[in-house]
Every structure is written in structure tokens, then in C-alpha cells.
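Module 6 notes. Inverse folding takes a fixed backbone as the condition and produces residue identities as the prediction. Think of it as a translation problem where the source language is geometry and the target language is the twenty amino acids. Below is one complete input and output pair. Work through it position by position during the lab.
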């Protein structure tokens, strides 16, 4: 049962699962800036209201309560929600392990209700199991922490990674995760020049952008003109 409360109005609705779906009781949810964009309606995307959605969110973790027609999950399993709620599973992208780019992909928290509520229905095939030893507070947001995973993977692949962010806490995190160096945007007068200095004049071969600030988009072309990968929207 889910409830919605607005001034002078209180409504309840029953939540049921369809074939191949799970009902998950959420323990935690993260806040992604895309959720704010969905609510502000400041991006060229469909509106949440067009689908009757009041709850954004795609970074949840909790416990499976019901699985209709699902054999590889059981009640009590710990699960986390992923940003893509479902895809067509029939196009070329879906058949080549690139279903996140499917033209018919359904974003969690935009078209179906998201994780800003107590319970959520999620397709079993797009629900990720939480490993033992990983708590819910870490498991929920990690599905969107591309920058953290990329730093760790890039370092393990032998790439030289430079972290660019602000404040000492972020510097410590970047270096802990394997970055070779860190550039503080509040101290740097020229990000591209600082990157060249760190790399013996070569500069960056590519830039991986997860910040939603418009300034981040402007500065990336100066840092690298060869490969720029964006994981967010300004």
C-alpha cells in the first residue's frame, strides 16, 4: 500500500506486481540531480506528470517482498534499483548488451514511480542483487556512481587518471580511489594547463564528465578535444 498526502487530500493505492516483477520494500534511496531536473521540468524530456508519476528516484535499496512468476529471487533477498526500469529487449542495441541506449528504454522515476517512497515495483531482470557485506546505504547510490567506478577501473587498466573536483574531502577520495593527481577547480586558473603539467606536456587523451554544472561542460573542450564522455546533463 502506498499513500500520497497533499494539503486537504489523502489518497491510498494498492501496489501489485505483474509477471516477472518484484515488489521491494525500500530501506534507503539516494538523491541524483537528474531527479531534480525531472521535478523542475527544465530538460527536453517527457514530464513526470504526463505519466502520473509523483515519485522520482532511481538509487534505492531494500528487501524483496513479493515476486510474481520469478524463480531466481526469493522473499527476503536484498535488492537495489537501477536507473533503467525496462527496455524493448528486441532492438539491435538490446541484443548487443547496449540496452541502456534503447530508444524505448523506460527511465526509473520518470515514467514509472521511483524510489522516493516505501515500496517500488521493479522488473526482476533489471533489479540488481546486493552482495553480502555491502550495506544498503552504499548499495543504493552506487548504481549511479559512474565517476567512482571509472576511476577504480581506469587505474586497474593502467590508465593515468587525474581527478578534477573541489575541496580537500574530494581530493582525498580521488587519491584513495587511485587517481594519480588531483586538480582543485577552486584553486586552478587554467585546468588544461594544469593537466598538461601533470602529464609532462601531453594533456588528457579523454575526459569523463559526471558533473551537472554548465561550467564543467565549457571546460572539457579545453582539457581534451579527442574523447569526451558525459554522464550527466547541465
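Target side of the pair, the amino acids:
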Amino acid at each position: 500500500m502506498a499513500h500520497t498526502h497533499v494539503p486537504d487530500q489523502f489518497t491510498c493505492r494498492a501496489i501489485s506486481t505483474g509477471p516477472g516483477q518484484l515488489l521491494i520494500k525500500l530501506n534507503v534511496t539516494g538523491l541524483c540531480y537528474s531527479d531534480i531536473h525531472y521535478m523542475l521540468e527544465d530538460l527536453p524530456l517527457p514530464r513526470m506528470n504526463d505519466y502520473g508519476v509523483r515519485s522520482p528516484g532511481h538509487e534505492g535499496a531494500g528487501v524483496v517482498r513479493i515476486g510474481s512468476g520469478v524463480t531466481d529471487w526469493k522473499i527476503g533477498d536484498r535488492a537495489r534499483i537501477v536507473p533503467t526500469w525496462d527496455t524493448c529487449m528486441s532492438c539491435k542495441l538490446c541484443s548487443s548488451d547496449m540496452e541502456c541506449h534503447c530508444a524505448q528504454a523506460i527511465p526509473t522515476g520518470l515514467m514509472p514511480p521511483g524510489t522516493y517512497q516505501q515500496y517500488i515495483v521493479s522488473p526482476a531482470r533489471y533489479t540488481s542483487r546486493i552482495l553480502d557485506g555491502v550495506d544498503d546505504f552504499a548499495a543504493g547510490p552506487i548504481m549511479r556512481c559512474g565517476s567512482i567506478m571509472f576511476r577504480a577501473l581506469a587505474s586497474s587498466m593502467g590508465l593515468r587518471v587525474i581527478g578534477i573536483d573541489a575541496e580537500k574531502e574530494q581530493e582525498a577520495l580521488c587519491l584513495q580511489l587511485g587517481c594519480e593527481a588531483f586538480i582543485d577547480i577552486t584553486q586552478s586558473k587554467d585546468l588544461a594547463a594544469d593537466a598538461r603539467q601533470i602529464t609532462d606536456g601531453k594533456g588528457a587523451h579523454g575526459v569523463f564528465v559526471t558533473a551537472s554544472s554548465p561550467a564543467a561542460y565549457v571546460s572539457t573542450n579545453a582539457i581534451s578535444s579527442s574523447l569526451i564522455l558525459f554522464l550527466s546533463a547541465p
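Reference fact for the lab report: The CA atoms of residues 51 and 129 lie 28 Å apart.
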